Amino acid sequence: MSGTEIRFVTPGRLLNPAGGFLEGYTHTLNPYAGCAFGCSYCYVRRMPVGLFRGRNWGEWIDVKRVNLEAFRKEWRRSRERTVMTVFMGSATDPYQPVEARYGITRALLEAMAEMPPDFLLLQTRSPLVVRDRELLRRFGGRLRVSLTIETDLESVRRRFTPKAPPVAARWRALRTLLDAGIDVQIAVSPLLPHSESFAVELVRAAPRIVVDDFFHGDGACGKRTEALGIRAMYEQAGEGELYHPETARRFFRELRLRAEPHGSTVLWSREGFLPP
Ligand code: SF4
Question: What was the pLDDT predicted at 1?
Answer without folding.
Answer: 60
